[in-house]
From TrEMBL:
Assembly mode: Homodimer.
Keywords: ATP-binding, Hydrolase, Iron, Iron-sulfur, Metal-binding, Nucleotide-binding
Biological role stated in the UniProt entry: Binds and transfers iron-sulfur (Fe-S) clusters to target apoproteins. Can hydrolyze ATP.
Residues annotated as domain MIP18 family-like: 2-74
Protein name, entry field: Iron-sulfur cluster carrier protein
PROSITE patterns (UniProt xref): MRP (PS01215)
GO MF entries: 4 iron, 4 sulfur cluster binding; ATP binding; ATP hydrolysis activity; ATP-dependent FeS chaperone activity; metal ion binding
Species of provenance: Deinococcus hopiensis KR-140
């Protein structure tokens, strides 16, 4: 009867990859005990955005097998690495950028990292905004200091289930860094290659605003899986976001999608929605995938000041729910890209 179950599973497609679960090697186990089938599906990311649909499709397909009366579906996850992994042990390097400051890029980067980690992924966060580092404060680790391990590599600081490095933890508080391009390049190199990141599914890099030296150093130093553009809806932000998009394309970095931050505001007293900055403007950025819209919410600012990502502090809030879905949409996009180079038929365990 197991063979019949496997044949049924060949009719179930991954909704994003458009191939069946068997040929993708996603069926880790398929067993039958009496009239009960036990199926374990290995997802391509712990943050799979369509896990519920896959479970429903598996149940329907297996229940159609004669003699099967119940299906027990469980899940595992294994993030497939990029065709050319960027760093030893790091499967994907993701850049979070914007054309200008003030659009909430760092807040989005921190919450994306925290959300992916909450879903079970191994996540690192690198604060590449050397002149204006804010990640450490947003994670409640502004006074922590980076140490070295036995191999004299920088040891990332751990907070909220992820590992991070920031210049804020290497320089005296409040001290301005007056560095030229070569020094910035050296700092980026050290953060990437002289740090003990360990085994990571995703290393998210919070870029500085603009299209300067740090962006150039990163794209020339490591193989980047892709970039996420963060913008607000108004035209003045979109103009600069378009420049950032052009930079990524010239550097041959795939843009995985755009996030529209501060997209709208829901009045807490009336529940009415106000498009303060003109909602939906980010859809003007070419044919980029739209990862999602985040509402303007005072809790996001309060949580950042308190050093706790909103997706952890207020997981049921509209802003947190939006960022959780954006993180899952992003993970899905990465899976599609990573699986594109695999053969048509993978071995079944």
């Amino acid at each position: 009867m197991r063979d019949a179950v496997m044949q049924a599973l060949k009719t179930v497609n991954d909704p994003e990859l458009h191939r069946d679960l068997v040929s993708l090697g996603m069926i880790e186990r398929a067993e039958v005990e009496g009239r009960v089938a036990h199926v374990k599906v290995n997802l391509t990311t712990p943050a799979c955005p369509l896990k519920g649909k896959i479970e429903g499709d598996v149940r329907a397909a297996v229940l159609a097998v004669p003699g099967i009366e119940a299906v027990n579906v469980t899940f595992g996850a294994m993030v497939r690495p990029a065709a050319q992994p960027a760093l030893p042990g790091v499967k994907h390097v993701l850049l979070v950028g914007s054309g200008k400051g003030g659009v909430g890029k760092s807040s989005v980067a921190v919450n994306l990292a925290a959300s992916l980690a909450r879903d079970g992924a191994q996540v690192g966060l690198m604060d590449a905004d050397v002149y204006g580092p804010s990640v450490a404060h947003m994670l409640g680790q502004g006074t922590a200091k980076v140490t070295a391990n036995a191999e004299r590599k920088m040891q990332p600081i751990e907070a909220h289930g992820l590992r991070f490095l920031s210049m804020a933890n290497l320089s005296p508080a409040g001290q301005a860094l007056v560095w030229r391009g070569p020094m910035l390049h050296s700092a980026v190199q050290q953060f990437l290659k002289d740090a003990a990141w360990g085994e990571l599914d995703y290393l998210i890099v919070d870029l500085p605003p603009g299209t300067g030296d740090v962006q150039l150093s990163l794209t020339q130093t490591v193989q980047v899986t892709g970039a996420v553009l963060v913008t607000t809806p108004q035209d003045v932000a979109l103009i600069d976001a378009a420049r950032a998009l052009d930079m990524f394309r010239k550097a041959s970095v795939p843009v995985l999608g755009v996030v529209e931050n501060m997209s709208y505001f829901v009045a807490p007293d009336t529940g009415l929605t106000y498009d303060i900055f003109g909602r939906g403007g980010s859809r003007k950025l070419g044919n980029l995938p739209h990862l999602g819209e985040i509402p303007l919410d005072t809790e996001v600012r309060q949580d950042a000041d308190a050093g706790l990502p909103t997706v952890l502090a207020h997981p049921e809030s509209p802003a947190a729910q939006a960022m959780r879905q954006i993180a899952r949409n992003l993970a899905g996009r990465i899976s599609v890209q990573a699986m594109a180079h695999l053969p048509e038929q993978l071995p079944v365990v």
